[in-house]
Fold this sequence. Notes:
The chain is an all-alpha fold. The chain is 48% helix and 0% strand.
Amino acid sequence: MPISLLNLPRCLAALALALQLAACAHSSTPQLDQRFGDAVRLAMAQQVRYPANVGRITPADGLDGPSAHAAMQRYRASFAEPNGQAPQPVQFMLGGGNGK
């Protein structure tokens, strides 16, 4: 069956699509995926201070309840008025310092 000039663009488009699909079949992805995420896992592992305690289910020793509650109240209150003082307004000087 001869290809007419009207069907030539359609045949070329089908051939281009077939070549693109064939190019996708052979990929280098499996070699790259073997170590995918290693840098993230390494960075996360390096942020653990005591790796031996990762699976530990006993709670950490620390403050008793009332002392921890008082410490948190002081911490939160420090943001309302730091050191018991109101913040000083910001002043900008425009021009020279000669007073002219």
